[in-house]
Design brief:
single chain, 191 residues, 5 helices
Length: 191
């Protein structure tokens, strides 16, 4: 499981608290709404960035992934944080780039990466489901499926993580200014 935290920067939090001091709960609402929008960006951008780095279709990625979003709740304006958590099982190797050869199977998870040979692997079709497998012993059965990385492992890749964090932080920074203007102009109701 991997958690990606985002928050309003400390100097911005102090500025927001000062600007919205006359509005009850204004600083908390502005930062909470901005972080909520940043979390939405974080979720979608993580999937997009994983697909930029890895050979995987969105439907295959989403079918094995559990995404939990924790929006800001309770506390005061100085302690607002939200996170998105990615967890799930390892993804079957056949969902990545795979090619069958006379000498077994070759597979690559990352785009631009070399194809790794699996000499004793083969494509199996049990019960209508095709997957990459290897024999456990010398007999025909049992066989075991081969798996690649999980979504959490791919989201933890430094290239993916850095791009996602940067995009989410940019969204928060833009959104904070919008929320301040909105609250100062009387929109957003009273808390």
């Amino acid at each position: 499981m991997i958690n990606i935290d985002i928050e309003v920067q400390n100097n911005s939090a102090e500025r927001i608290s000062t600007l919205l001091a006359d509005i009850p709960g204004g600083a908390y609402r502005a930062m909470g709404n901005a972080i909520g929008r940043g979390l939405t960006t974080l979720r979608s951008e993580t999937i997009n960035q994983i697909r930029e780095v890895y050979h995987i279709k969105k439907k295959d990625l989403m079918s094995t992934t559990h995404i939990k979003t924790q929006k800001p709740t309770g506390g005061d304006a100085s302690d607002i944080i939200g996170y998105v958590s990615f967890s799930g099982h390892k993804i079957p190797l056949d969902k990545f780039k795979v090619s069958a050869t006379k000498k077994g199977i070759k597979a690559s998870q990352k785009k631009g990466g070399t194809m790794t040979p699996f000499i004793h692997a083969f494509m199996s079709n049990l019960s209508g489901n095709q997957f990459v497998a290897e024999r456990v012993g010398s007999s025909r059965f049992p066989i075991k499926g081969l798996y690649g990385s999980s979504t959490a492992q791919m989201a933890g890749n430094s290239v993916v993580y850095d791009e996602v964090k940067k995009a989410a932080q940019e969204t928060i920074d833009k959104r904070v200014e919008h929320e301040i203007t909105r609250l100062l102009n009387g929109y957003g109701g009273r808390s």
